[in-house]
Design goal:
CATH architecture: Beta Barrel
Number of strands: 12
Radius of gyration: 19 Å
Distance between the termini: 18 Å
CATH topology: Porin
Number of domains: 1
Largest sheet: 8 strands, antiparallel, barrel
Helix content: under 10%
Strand content: over 45%
Shape: elongated
Length: 186
């Protein structure tokens, strides 16, 4: 069965193969400590969705977060970069000009933290597996779409203590992603 997409002039575009889009979101961190240090953090992402039969889609997403903060309790400057690459399946429901979708998939995240403190390792690099839950509403106009989304990013990292006076803890650097996007299909 072929998939059709409505446009504003009630024309249809049959069988687009994939779409690519840019997403901007705020990350509302799950961890209270992470939230105190980095607050709500802006993210940028590129997402490609491949259309599959029976309302299923395969998506690939690369997200980038770069944010300055202040350590607790001494207020030393710190900088974090989080780069998850995620892949998963979404189920899509198309209604007139709108698409609703829910999805889930694993992610692999690169993390880099740079601290300006004499008490901890100044640069920490980590990598780990996590998961991404996705939900979105898209409004389609011809080949373009505009979306709002609410995603949840699960990502846990362990930080061993290297100095007896400073305690580092395991933490979830993920959280709620609330944002909007724009893209086109091909």
């Amino acid at each position: 069965m072929s998939k059709t997409y409505a446009t504003c002039k009630n024309e249809t575009k049959k069988n687009p193969k994939f779409e690519i889009g840019y997403n901007f979101a705020g990350l509302f961190p799950q961890s209270p400590t992470f939230r105190k240090i980095y607050k709500v953090s802006p993210t940028n992402a590129v997402e490609t969705t491949f259309f599959l039969p029976k309302n299923f889609n395969l998506w690939v997403n690369f997200l980038y977060l770069s944010k300055d903060g202040r350590s607790i309790p001494v207020e030393d400057k710190t900088h974090i970069e989080i780069m998850p690459l995620s892949l998963g399946f979404k189920y899509n429901i198309a209604l007139n000009f709108f698409d609703f979708s829910l999805g889930l998939g694993p992610c692999y995240t690169w993390l880099r933290i740079k601290d300006k403190s004499e008490f901890v390792n100044q640069i920490v690099k980590k990598q780990n597996f996590g998961a991404m839950f996705k939900s979105s509403i898209k409004y389609r106009v011809k080949k373009l779409y505009f979306s709002v989304f609410l995603d949840y990013f699960f990502q846990h990292f362990h930080f061993p203590t290297t100095n007896e006076r400073i305690k580092r803890h395991s933490t979830d650097v993920g959280g709620l992603l609330l944002g909007f996007g724009i893209g086109t299909n091909f």
